[in-house]
């Protein structure tokens, strides 16, 4: 999680912050004590969470009905936002990866088989693989006997 936090939090312009966009299930998968994700503007996309709006979060989170509404809210904050990170779930990834606004995919390969029912969508052919190892993770990391590779 340190890699994720660093990537989605650090900015070149220290007067700005990044935004993370996520679906309701991704939001709910984050332990309550870590919501909203600190140091980032959190955009939560949900049509069913409106009831929770008044008691939704402490801190910096915006609830929106759609990706378009979320992007509109970010446009309103464009002077204070440096980068936008889409952090899940599956249908949001599917919507964003075909968008002309999506410029990069930061992919982490986990070399272990898991039972899953949801998968990341195929990456379009117009994306080019650039092998990259972040400075803070110079080598493969092995955690709980799981090899993790940053691509």
Automatic annotation (TrEMBL):
InterPro entries assigned to the protein according to its UniProt record, in alphabetical order: DHFR (IPR012259), DHFR-like_dom_sf (IPR024072), DHFR_dom (IPR001796)
This protein's record includes keyword Zinc: no
The keyword Lipid metabolism is annotated on this UniProt entry: no
PROSITE patterns: DHFR_2 (PS51330)
DHFR domain sequence ranges: 1-151
Main enzyme class: oxidoreductase
EC number: 1.5.1.3
Keyword annotations: NADP, One-carbon metabolism, Oxidoreductase
Superkingdom, natural source: Eukaryota
MF GO annotations: dihydrofolate reductase activity
UniProt catalytic activity: (6S)-5,6,7,8-tetrahydrofolate + NADP(+) = 7,8-dihydrofolate + NADPH + H(+)
Pfam families referenced in this protein's UniProt entry, alphabetically: DHFR_1 (PF00186)
Pathway note: Cofactor biosynthesis; tetrahydrofolate biosynthesis; 5,6,7,8-tetrahydrofolate from 7,8-dihydrofolate: step 1/1
GO biological process, one term: one-carbon metabolic process
Protein name: dihydrofolate reductase
């Amino acid at each position: 999680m340190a890699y994720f936090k660093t990537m989605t939090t650090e900015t070149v312009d220290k007067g700005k912050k990044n935004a993370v966009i996520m679906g309701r299930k991704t939001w709910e998968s984050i332990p309550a004590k870590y919501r909203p994700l600190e140091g980032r503007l959190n955009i939560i996309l949900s049509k069913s969470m409106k009831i929770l709006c008044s008691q939704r979060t402490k801190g910096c989170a915006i609830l929106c009905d759609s990706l378009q509404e979320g992007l509109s809210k970010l446009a309103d904050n464009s002077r204070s936002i440096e980068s936008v990170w889409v952090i899940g779930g599956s249908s949001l990834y599917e919507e964003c990866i075909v968008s002309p606004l999506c410029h990069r995919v930061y992919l982490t390969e986990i070399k272990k088989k898991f039972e899953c029912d949801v998968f990341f969508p195929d990456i379009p052919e117009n994306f080019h693989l650039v092998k990259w190892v972040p400075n803070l993770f110079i080598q493969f990391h092995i955690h709980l006997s799981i090899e993790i590779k940053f691509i």
